[in-house]
Amino acid sequence: MRNALGFALFAAIAAAPVCAETGDFGGRLSAAAIERTGARVVYDPSYQRIAYPMGDVAADRGVCADEVVRALRALGVDLQVLVHEDMNSAFAAYPQFWGLRAPDPNIDHRRVPNLEIFMTRRGWRLSPSLDPNSYRPGDIVAWNLRGDAGFLPHIGIVTDRVGASGWPMVVHNIGAGPKLEDVLFSWPMTGRYRMSQPERAAP
Q: pTM for the whole thing?
């Protein structure tokens, strides 16, 4: 698992936005992520049968990966479809932790390890960096919350806001719904990813 995901690394104040082109995809994804912080969401990792495509659990339920899915859908990108199609074509390339024998569009895109593999396969993975200046609005970052003590995956979206630490702030759901927080380097990072433009528009 650790080899597959490439463990290379290890009270929020929303200040003025970082300079960015507001029309670029990353800037729009940052804005969509920040918009999500107005939603009330109970952290709920339970398995749910959902529609396909554009399926989602109840709007007031979800996990960290759901915030990435929902922010991208606001820009016309359906990760449910993209991940499912890629897993159909290369199922063995994905983690086999859950005992599945085939892709499952109800849950696959809601699992951080699957999203990391998908984004890596799409060529979106960037070299790890501890330099906050190397992060751009709209970058997607994943962490291992337990560090050397075990594995608990987490994911969020870098925004154009800067926190008290001087780091770009991140929108994520770590248990209390989508929040904008100053946590970019708070846990060991397992990957960072940048999508320059929508790969596929949702129907």
A: 0.87
